[in-house]
Every structure is written in C-alpha cells, then in structure tokens.
Amino acid sequence: MSTSEKFQSVFVALAAVLGLGAGLLWPMGEVAGFLVLPLLMVMLAAVFAQVDAGQVREAREARKVVAASLVLNFVFTPLFAWTLGAGLLGGSPDLRIGLLLLLVTPCTDWYLVFTGLARGHMGAAAAVLPVNLVLQLLLLPVYVLLLGGEAAMVGTGTLVEAVLLVLVVPLVIALLVRWGARRWKGERWREQRLMPVLSASVLPLLYTAVFAMFAWQARTVVAHLGDLAVLLLPLALFFVVMPLVAVATGRVLRLPADQRVTLTMTSVARNSPVALAIAVAAFPDRPLIAVALVTGPLLELPVLAVLSQIVRVRRAGPAVEARS
C-alpha cells in the first residue's frame, strides 16, 4: 500500500479543508462547481479500466463467500441503511439520501488492498468486484426511489439519466481504453504500463474533486456543520455492526479463515466516489447530499485499516487461523 493509500482519509480531509478555505476567501464557487462532475467521471473511468471481467471465473473457487457477500451488500445493507436513516436522520432528508447513497454502493476498488493486507482470499475478492459494479449500477436507482421515499424527491428519469451519465459513460470509456490498449499495444503493455498510470491517477483526481466540491459549496458547509456532525452516529453504527454481521455470517457458513476476511472487507467497504458522482449529477440543487458523502471516507478508511489488523489471518506453523 502506497503512502497516499495509507493516508487517504487524511488527504481527503486536507483537500476538504483547503477547498473550504479557498471557497470562503475567493469567489471561485461557480468555476469549481463545473469541475466536480468531470473530475469524478474521469476518475471512475480510470477505476473501471482496471477491472477485469475475467476475474468472475475466480468465483468458482469460493461460491459461498461470493453468494454471502451479495446477500449482505444488496439485501441486508440497504435495509440497514434505511433503518439508520429513518431512525436517526428523520428530520434531515438530504442527510438521509446521502447516507443511503453511500451505504448501498459496495466498494469496487480499495477493499482489495485491505483484503490483501489481512491475507484474505484474493480470488474471491476479485470475483466479487465486477459483480458489485454491475449490480450497483442496476439497483442504485431502485434503492433511492424505494427506500428514499419522499426524501428523494427526484424523478425516475432524472435518476436513471444520472446513473447512465456517471456510471455507464465512464464504464464504456474504460472498456474502450482496455480494448484499444490491447489491440494496438498488446496485453503486456496494457498491464505493465497503462494500468499503473491509471491506478496512480485515481487518488489525485479524487482529492481534486473533493477540493473543488468544498470550494463550490463552502458556505453551505459552514451553514450546516451541525447537521454534518449528526451524520457521524449512523456512520459509526454501520462501521461497528457490519463487521460483526459479516464475521458471524462467515462463522455460520463455516467459511475458511481467508474467505471470512474477504467477506468482511467487501461487506464493510463502501464506494464513496460513485455515490458522490451520482449525488452531484442527480441532486445538483441539493449540495448537502454531496457534502455529506465526503464524511464517509473520513471515517471509513481508518476503520478499514484497523479492521484489516483485527481480522488478519494469523499463520502459526501449518495452521491458518483468523482472529475475529
């Protein structure tokens, strides 16, 4: 894991603070606002280009963990997210939608890093990735419209258009990049030269997008600092409950230690960049939703770092044990 990855939450917070200061000191909100969505779309294209659909074949080796992760991510988590929002954020519709968008989008990148650190089953983790991507693309509008209720206040057409713009367009671009690189330069060049460049570009694009968003909505953030603090409680509950549920599920299914680790990481890690891009595109007149989504990674990354050590597979002689 690179230094930038280790301190991602710190850099996200720093980008937010710098953007907030710039937005309050200089009249740059309108210009910054035009940059947020393009930056996020380019970043997502770079992320998607690194996804290999052939990884689905790895699922044959770990069908139980893949099936369990799909149930936890696409059945349990949406219902849990709705419960947290309705119970703790009932008076803040924008925060409810922000929380919902964040929690119903399982991670498609960083959980692999933490799975590796915890010595999880990387084949199963890789197999889950493209499935998570496709299912969240299809189901996200359904979750928002069904579970968001009156708080969503957005038409089906608007939400579908946002998903098509933010997810499908970068996905198509990513597929063309993968195909074109292999067609003209060869698979070896693509994997050894292009993929490292794309991987290295993701975090700078994310930090720049966060900076631009906070510069754009600086006064909105200052006016709603108290509201954003309220969001910390449901987020904290999610990051405490989900690891326990995932570990318990792994034990009930009698999964091997490395597969329990994979199940835990893919159930806890969230896809905040995708959720943020959807929020900016679908709710342009409700900036608090997008601002709320930046709070997630500030808590999520430290949690994943600690969790990767707690559930890490311990090897003592020939035995393989996981402390969980």
TrEMBL record:
The keyword Hydrolase does not apply. It is found in: Cell membrane. Keywords: Cell membrane, Membrane, Transmembrane, Transmembrane helix, Transport. It is a multi-pass membrane protein. The chain crosses the membrane at residues 7-26, 32-53, 65-89, 95-114, 126-146, 152-177, 197-216, 228-249, 261-282, 288-307. Belongs to the arsenical resistance-3 (ACR3) (TC 2.A.59) family. This is Bile acid:sodium symporter. It comes from Nocardiopsis exhalans. The lineage of its organism: Bacteria, Bacillati, Actinomycetota, Actinomycetes, Streptosporangiales.
